[in-house]
Amino acid sequence: xxxxxxxxxxxxxxxxxxxxxxxxxxxxxxxxxxxxxxxxxxxxxxxxxxxxxxxxxxxxxxxxxxxxxxxxxxxxxxxxxxxxxxxxxxxxxxxxxxxxxxxxxxxxxxxxxxxxxxxxxxxxxxxxxxxxxxxxxxxxxxxxxxxxxxxxxxxxxxxxxxxxxxxxxxxxxxxxxxxxxxxxxxxxxxxxxxxxxxxxxxxxxxxxxxxxxxxxxxxxxxxxxxxxxxxxxxxxxxxxxxxxxxxxxxxxxxxxxxxxxxxxxxxxxxxxxxxxxxxxxxxxx
Amino acid sequence: xxxxxxxxxxxxxxxxxxxxxxxxxxxxxxxxxxxxxxxxxxxxxxxxxxxxxxxxxxxxxxxxxxxxxxxxxxx
Amino acid sequence: xxxxxxxxxxxxxxxxxxxxxxxxxxxxxxxxxxxxxxxxxxxxxxxxxxxxxxxxxxxxxxxxxxxxxxxxxxxxxxxxxxxxxxxxxxxxxxxxxxxxxxxxxxxxxxxxxxxxxxxxxxxxxxxxxxxxxxxxxxxxxxxxxxxxxxxxxxxxxxxxxxxxxxxxxxxxxxxxxxxxxxxxxxx
Lengths: 285, 75, 187
Prior knowledge:
heterotrimer; A: mainly alpha; two-stranded antiparallel ribbon; 69% helix; C: mainly alpha
């Protein structure tokens, strides 16, 4: 007995509901002023176990909630997976196939894709789930906006492509093909090798980290600014200035949609770049 | 000798530095995506490979912008 | 590690500079735990299940296609068999017809031969009979000639003593009569 959804919500309606709820939940600033969010947003006070290594704060909590929800959803779908898919299984399969076909097989080729599909799938869905909590009304913070999660994911990606390169060429061979690309006259190697070293082994994971973190950070700050501004204008401003609140609410709504899109895009880019780096490590220069 | 201050600007110069750092990557990514669009319009069947090359180029170009952001925050 | 914790991870304190990009230890452990959970669920449970379903589905479709192909091949084989039997039956029928015709001709020829033989035999019989009757006639004629001769002789003897000339005249006349009679018989 499956209940049919009466009217499916499209992205705009979802974003509208999300924006409205966020607005209602937006914390009022200090009396008489507008509380401008700053970087302190991302370092909230600890909720429990303060001072030990198990300390967790709001962001860590949100991170666990996201992970649990993701795992529960997929576990439920996988438990009753049948040969002819129902709706939920169809959606899950669409997601999994997107990673497998559009990312893994397109970049690595059908033959070599198989060993890396689990890694890429985990990366994609972990980042997507953790990014999307930035717009979910009660959670309101993307746990990828502090540096821990992007850093660990980038280290995982780094291990993956170095491992792929070493498996394909052997350790010395891998260093040689990546630091000394062929087709270049040898004096240039003196400048090229350090540049390649920094670019390949340091910059790649660093840019992966910072790209993900900065996007989520900026997105969150924008959303907070617009919601707080709307709240302040509607509640505490005087007279005609309230009308500007409508404009800022419109901007908040637009940025919610934009933020959902950026969440998915950043997950896609992270996973795609990991696949690309694996591919580049595997092929001989 | 006592120097007279004529004008004063206060604030964080790191933000100005980052603002300058976004110019190059902005133009770079713009050109990259534009060229990919053009090439896809000419030959749609290789769109997949073109898109992958665009992302590789974008990763390299965006790195400079991100280094600008980080450098402003670290130093 | 202590530095990280005391400098940057105090409740709500905002790190400066480089510490912005170095996660506090509790954060690292927390995210490792969350990511390990996601990785475990995906790699151990979700992906093998979906891979198994995909493989089953492929095999079902492929199996279905293979079965359809084999059924088609069987049908083609049956068609070939049927055509072959039909050709054989037709050949046999033709041969039977051929045999019948040959036999018919043979029978006709045989009958004709037999009829010819019969005719020949009847002819031969008839001729033999005619020959036999001729012989018989000749024999009876010879007997009659005897009788006639005797009669003539008696007549001659009756008359002979009278006249020798008349005798020869009677003989000549008798021989001419006899000859004429023989010619008339023979004609």
